[in-house]
Amino acid sequence: MIRAAYILSFILFLGLSTKAQHTANIANRQLIAFQDSLQDLGFKMINDSIEPQRYNASYKFIKTLVTALKTPYSFNFPFDSLKSISIQTSSDKRFRIFSWHVMNADGSYRYYGSVQMNSTDGKLQMFPLVDYTAGFKNPADSVTSNDKWYGAQYYKIISVLNNVKTPYYILLGWKGNNVRSTKKVIDVIHFKDNKAYFGMPVFDGDKDKPTQKRVIFEYVRKASMVLNWDPKTSTIIFDHLAPPDDRLKGNFELYGPDFSYDGYRLANGRWRLVEDLKVANQPTDQDDNFNDPKKLKVN
Predict the structure, then answer these.
(1) What is the pLDDT of residues 195-208, one digit of tens each?
(2) Are residues 60 and 89 in the same domain?
(3) Number of domains, the chain
(4) What is the per-residue pLDDT across 49-66, written as a single tens digit (0 to 9) for each?
(5) Which long-range contacts (CB under 8 A, 24 or more apart) does 289-295 make?
(6) Where are the alpha helices (DSSP H) in the chain?
(7) Which tens digit of pLDDT belongs to each residue from 171-192?
(8) How many CA within 13 A on the CB side of residue 217?
(9) Strand, helix or coil at 1?
(10) Alpha-carbon distance 64 to 61, whole Å?
(11) Are both 52 and 93 inside the same structural domain?
C-alpha cells in the first residue's frame, strides 16, 4: 500500500514537473520572438535618419518590451541579443535596468528606461523611468523618484550592501548632451517603501563640492572620458577634466582629459574624493562604444 502511494506520488510529481518545463519552454520561445522584434526596433531607434521615425520606433520598443516583461519569470531571460540598449543587473540579482537613448535632429538626446525587480512570484514589478533632465535646476543636489529621472544610459552597477543603513547601488552612465559636449554621470539608485529613488548624499568631494547626491561630468564632445570601476581598490576611476586654457575655466563644453586621474573611493558606505591617482596601467574605457551612438555595442 505504501509502495503504491509512493509510486502514485512520484508519477504526479513527474507530471507536474513535465508540465512546468513545458510552460517554461513556451515562455522562452515567446521571449525569443519578442527579442527578435525588439532587435529590429532598436536598430531603427539608433540608425534611422529621420527623427520622428526614431521616436516612433522607441515608442513601439517600449510597448513590446513591457509586453515581453509580463511573461512570468522574464527576469531570468537575458535579452542578450539586444545591442541597441544597455541592460545591467545588480550583483545581488535584486533588479536590472534597461536604458537607451534617442538622438534628436539638433544633436541632443532623450533617454528612456525601466527598472525591473526580481519578484519571487515571477510577476512583473517595474518602475518606468521618465527623463526629467530639462526640469532639473541643480541635478547634483537632487533626490527624485523614477518619474523625475536624470536620464542616462548605464553601463555599470556597483552594489553597496555593507556598512550602510539603506543598501544602495552606484550607476555609471553615459549622457550624450548636445552637439558641443558630452556628459557622464555617477548616480545612485535605492529602494524604499516599494519605490525607486535616484540620488543620495554619499559623495564627499573637495571644499567647493563638499557633498553631492550625484556626480556629473561634462566635456567636449570630440573627446573620450574614462569613468570606470576598479574593484581591486574599491575606487571609481575617472579622467581629470580641465579647460584648454585657464581663462576658459567653467566653460565645461570645452573641457577634456589632462592625462591625470582622480577617483571616488568607497569607505564605510561613503565615497571619498581621491585626487591625482597613481594608476599603474591606464584604465580601459569600457564604455568607449557610447562615444559614437551609431556604433553602439553594449557588452
Answers:
(1) 999 999 999 987 77
(2) no
(3) 2
(4) 999 999 999 999 999 999
(5) 290/153, 290/155, 290/174, 290/176, 291/182, 291/224, 293/46, 293/101, 293/103, 293/176, 294/46, 294/47
(6) 2-47, 51-69
(7) 999 999 999 999 999 999 999 9
(8) 26
(9) coil
(10) 5
(11) no
Give the bridge partners for 20, in sequence order: none
Strands of the chain, DSSP E:
86-89, 95-103, 109-117, 126-130, 144-145, 153-160, 168-176, 181-192, 195-198, 203-204, 211-212, 215-220, 227-230, 235-242, 256-267, 270-274
The rounded distance, in Å, linking the Cα atoms of 34 and 180 is: 37
Q: 269 burial class (0-12, 13-18, 19+ CB within 10 angstroms)?
A: middle
Residues 262 and 148 in one domain: yes
Chain mean pLDDT for the chain:
89
Q: Which three cell numbers stand for residue 264?
A: 571616488
CB atoms within 10 A of CB 254: 18
C-alpha to C-alpha distances, 262 to 5, 110, 195, 214, nearest whole angstrom:
69, 29, 33, 16
- Using one digit for the tens of pLDDT, what is the confidence trace for 104-157? 999 999 999 999 999 999 999 999 999 999 999 999 999 999 999 999 999 999
- Burial zone of 199 (CB within 10 Å; 0-12 exposed, 13-18 middle, 19+ buried): buried
Strands 203-204 and 211-212 turn out to be: antiparallel
Please name which of 168, 227, 152 lies closest in space to residue 202, comparing C-alpha atoms. Answer: 168
Write down which residue in 68, 83, 98 finishes a domain. Answer: 83
Per the CB < 8 A criterion, the answer to whether 157 and 90 are in contact is yes
Q: Which pLDDT score is estimated for 296?
A: 47
pTM exceeds 0.85: yes
Q: How far apart are CA 99 and CA 189, in angstroms?
A: 14
State mean pLDDT over 227-256: 96
Which residues form the domain of 16?
Answer: 1-83
253 shares a domain with 241? yes
